Structure of Glycoside hydrolase family 31 protein:
Amino acid sequence: MLAILIPVLLFLRVIAVAADPSDFRQETNFDEGRTGPSLNVSSCPGYAVVSERQTNQGLVVQLSLAGEACNAFGHDIANLTVEVTYETATILHVNIYDSAKIQFTVPQDVVSLSVGENDPTLKDRSDLEFHHDSNPFEFWISRRSDPDRLPLFDTRTKSLPPTPIPPVIPGDNTTALDGFPLVFEDQYLQLTSALPLDANIYGLGEVLASSGFRRDVGTNGGVGTIQTMWARDSPDPIDENIYGSHPIYLEHRYDAQTRRSKSHGVFHFGAAGSDVLLLTPPVSNTSLIQYRMVGGTLDFYFFSGPSPQKVIEQYGELVGRPTWQPAWGFGFHLCRWGYADVNETRQQVAKMREANIPLEVMWNDIDLYHALRDFTTDPVSFPADQMEAFISDLTANQQHYIPIVDAAIAKLVNASDVYDPYTRGSELDVWMTNPDGSEYLGQMWPGYTVFPDWFANNTRGFWTEALRNWSTAGVNYSGIWLDVNEPSSFCIGSCGTGANLTAATIPTMFFPGTPGNLVTEYPEGYNATIWGPSGNITINGTLTFGNHSFGRLHKKRGLGAAAEPGVNLDSPPYSLHNADGFLSTHTVSTNATHANGAVELDTHNLWGLMEEKATHLSLLELRPGKRPFMISRSTFPSSGRWTGHWLGDNISKWQYMYLSIQGVLQFQLFQIPFVGADTCGFQGNTDEELCNRWMQLSAFMPFYRNHNVRSALSQEPYRWDSVANASRTAISIRYSMLPYWYTLFANASMRGTPPIRALFFEFPDEPELFTVDRQYMIGRDLLVTPVLTPNVSTVDGIFPGQGRVKWRDWYTHAVVDAAISQNTTLDAPLGHINVHIRDGSALLLYDSPAYTIAETRQSPFALLVAQASDGYAFGTAYLDDGESVQPTPNTTLTMKARKGELTIRPQGDFDVQQRLVKITVLGAGRTRPTDIRVNGKPLRNSSNWQFDSGLERLVISGLSLDLNAPISLTWQ
């Protein structure tokens, strides 16, 4: 939400830094690029092995500089230690750190990685092997099961030709890198590994990548990707660093001779700001990945896979698997920045009910606050008693409420000001500080603000207290929305130090929708000559998108040129490719300090994670036994243990609907699977056709929320008849699929298995799928092919399996006549999203999806079985109460089919009260059955079953079967 004001806030920027000049280094001129030393690591000596010794778990190697220090961007560290640990049979740990242990590393109490198996036999039986040379020290990782021992990660790059890396920002005068030596300095670390030419690389985020889900590795001397790991509040730019930092990648290798593939993963565990480059040297048969860090250590974990799914599961085993989601979280959520008061918020709930569009959770943005301050309600527009009554009504209707919590806490502006969260936090000494120990005062919505220091001893207690007080003062929330927690600040430095705190620091006139900052652009593709006032998508049956008559609804007042970025001399000598340039822009300064003595430069990327962990634990304390529900913006490895994520301040354009797919796929790899986009777009004005298609697409994503910016055209799904109809249909399917969604997320929490999958995750040996990111799979059984372009009534999609798999239409159950290894054109009229069922699947569904999740969960069950050609089908369904913290009573149903036979077997201690009332079998043969038996008893009433020979479909209804006991169905 915040980042849409960047142009305005640049105009208003206050440049002030409260720090001693001795803390500063060299000045940076961002017009001219970096000054000072250029990157000339060709003169860096690398390291040589001094000694090594075997351990029970691996190897310890001592290194020293192999020559004269080069001090490229800091001071070379003379002595390093390399610890090689075989953690499990599939996870190998290689940690290169300064022997004195001065460099910052992520504390164990912030990210608690899993402990290895401590098994000495792993050195001989692990699927991954560590190899190294001594002078210079170089290492490579291979797979033991590979007969050729081809390297998966290989720092032996001296034979490569010198590679001038083209400048990516002005003045980035990188010189030829002769041999890509290991560099380990106090403020610059570099490690390079060879990759196969044009490697299939996925991950390295968070990013909206123009190349798609598969990352670009460049060609013939070019840099394909520069992924900067520096959490940043920005309105969803493309190919730039944004909210989260995830230095994990999955590489998928295909052998054209054997037509087989294997995947492995590489994770750099560190919080330091970094650039990760993917490039290809000129006239070379290899590509490269290069890590450049401004601190920390070279702490790497390698995952052997060998399937994409296994790589993701192994990563989850290390960093922690996703938190359990409450069942109600899978419902439809509605929010807007701009619901002016509690009555308007209540009105949305009523209108959704009138339109019969299911609404599970109502949200409020910062409109809720008094003076834009966290943990408050505005006494005029959202009085506490009315909020309490409103939320009580939601609860009575089995619906839920979620408010926003921003990262910064308002500073008191005068002696008569009363704001308990600030006062209490000051008493408990929980705020981040300047180097001299004074309060760090940034700038956010309420004016000058302080920022919680998650390293301070009392911060979580303070946070729990604030959340408790809020919940008992009218805001009885069901979950929490954490926003702008990169963290974001409107100015550079501790700009409130010495300032007039009573001054209006963020005039509300600069909010979107107020004079000076109106949301004025027409919807994308608006045709001013034929569109009606409501933005009709058809005029007399003619689709109207395409004239690109972009304009403005109002003339936007010019704001003048933006001020130059401030100068912070505490930036590291190597200039990260942070899209905001100066690292302290729009966030807390790098010289801000924490209670443990750490500085923000080292811990910046951890801020959002630490807030998420504190909030999750607070919610557990406040609601014992209930699963916390939380959505957060900034994330880091292991965030999925505590929170879900939304994809940030996206834009109401078709491109962003497409980009949401790669965003969701990225976060499956990052072990944060409960993720989704702001449906219909957050920024700008949407239109009927875009919102129609997007409401359908998001219904088949994990987190499903429509969220809109102030003063933009209203986009609640009831606003247009076509969107309302499409939404009702899509939500009905989503709710009927709830047992399937719930099982996928149970598997994610128990095993780390990704619920949403790129096509090649399930079909890894089909190279035509490696770049596909306009389609995706839900689990292993459902293929989604959304419409992502305007003004069309068909969509092209590929059907995996190379002709060996039957795909059936979700709606008609007809087998698709699909082209092999190429696109098939599908009908896709407005209001229809293509979903197809893979053969061999067995899906437990709710037979009568209702308005809320609670009502839907009282519905009887139906079973949909799609048999393969040999009659095989398999599926599981995990069932519990949907809200209790694990461990809790649960039952897993295992559903298996063979030709003419289906069995359902329960295992567990959860009492399944709903009955199974219908079974549909697809692929049941072309001959009408003469004998159908349920639990051995003949089904004599022919009115209870139907058979369609064309569809090979057998439907048995009118059942009332107890799922707590085994069930069998036979037909012949």
Remarks:
- The CA atoms of residues 39 and 174 lie 5 Å apart.
- Confidence is low (pLDDT under 50) at residues 4-39, 166-177, 547-569.
- Residues 753-971 form a domain with the Immunoglobulin-like fold (CATH 2.60.40.1180).
- The first strand starts at residue 47 and ends at 54.
